[in-house]
Amino acid sequence: MTKISPFKADIPQAAIDDLHRRLDDARWPELIEHKSWEAGVPTDYLKQLASYWRNDFDWRTQEERLNKYPQFTTEIDGQTIHFLHIKSPEADAMPLIITHGWPGSVFEFLNIIEPLTNPRAHGGDAKDAFHLVIPSIPGFGFSGPTREAGWNLARIAKAWAELMDRLGYEKYAAQGGDAGTGISTELSHASGGKLIGIHMNGPAIFPMDDSLKAEELSKEDQVRMQRLAKFQAEGMAYYQMQSTRPQTLAYGLNDSPIGQLAWIVEKFQEWTDPAKKLPEDAVHIDELLANVSLYWFTGTIGSAARLLYETTHAGGWPMPPAVPVGVAIFAGDNTIRALIQKDGNKGHLSEFDRGGHFAAMEAPDLLVGDIRKFFRSMR
């Protein structure tokens, strides 16, 4: 089946009403005062955020933002695949497939669509234009939930290769962050030579090397190494759960919007620009909640969590990319520049003093500029 069907987001009002009821009826844990987020999301903070979600956030506005762009669904390998497909007004634009990660979604990229597809209207050069394909990973948002096991990075990459073939693209580029780096890397092996290059934003997947000495690193790499060590020691509870017992976790998160909100917002707190005090200081609060709401309304928090399980049980992360790679390191990333260079990447590598894991929402101008710069030589 190769049919491609138009799609528009239209969550039933009954689902919105149900969310509001659940937020009204939330049963909160005992409030233990913490001066920081060290034990998890502070109760008083989450109550304020949940109140905004219930009383001020407007899903219909976010739905309109998404529906502004052409969306489609198609079935690949037995799974419904949702994607945005935005053609540039420039006929010779470069096709670019952009992949989100966890806990992200296609909502991440709404602020970079127009500058990438129509650079002339945004102070750029027409020669830097892209045709964009922005899919929802199987098990996420409108591409989910998944109904069977086995949707690991390699299988997703094969689906992306099929999707680009169905759209008629003979040569194309890829961009991704988080799981999107792994999927794009696998796509370099699955595309049959059609993928010409990958732009990644952190954390890029490169092996650790115990021979690296802290005193030999740049000041920036030393800071990132310290953050990475702290992350490995204190910040991987989500990883352990999602890579070993995602189904057990799914029952609570899928039944409680408060639980789901806490699970996701904790990562926005930890992974965004460290100069920002709260998640909504780094990402607009409505954009953050649009992302959370999409998981809730589509019932995909469980199937999205399984991505780590499937990847881990398929043998882990992929082999190195088979095409040129450009890496952008933002202020909140733990990507170690020296590791990337030691691993053989002598090409495009940029460092920025702001932004973080959700670069397309936090620093869209920097991400757009770096994507343009990297792919310029491949046109």
List keywords for this structure.
alpha/beta; Rossmann fold; nine-stranded mixed beta sheet; 16 helices
Structure description:
By secondary structure, the protein is α/β, with parallel strands linked by helices. The protein has one domain (4-378): Alpha/Beta hydrolase fold, catalytic domain (Rossmann fold, 3-Layer(aba) Sandwich), CATH 3.40.50.1820. Helix content is 44%, strand content 13%. The chain is built from 16 helices and 9 strands. It has helices spanning 13-24, 43-55, 59-67, 113-117, 153-166, 179-190, 219-234, 237-244, 246-255, 257-271, 279-282, 285-298, 301-313, 337-342, 359-362, 364-375; strands spanning 4-7, 71-76, 79-86, 94-99, 130-135, 172-177, 195-201, 325-329, 349-351. The protein has a 9-stranded mixed sheet with strand order 1-2-3-5-4-6-7-8-9, sandwiched between helices. Helix 9 packs antiparallel against helix 13 (301-313). The radius of gyration is 20 Å and the shape is globular.
CATH architecture: 3-Layer(aba) Sandwich
Subunit organisation of the chains: single chain
Largest sheet: 9 strands, mixed
Task: Going across the biggest sheet, name each strand in turn.
Answer: 1-2-3-5-4-6-7-8-9
CATH topology term: Rossmann fold
What best-fitting shape do the alpha-carbon axes yield?
Answer: globular
The top-level CATH class is: Alpha Beta
Low-pLDDT stretches: none
| Number of helical segments with 4 or more residues | 16
Order of helices and strands: EHHHEEEHEHEHEHHHHHHHEHEHH
* Overall tally of structural domains: 1
Percent helix, as a range, is: 40-55%
The Rg value, from CA coordinates, equals 20 Å
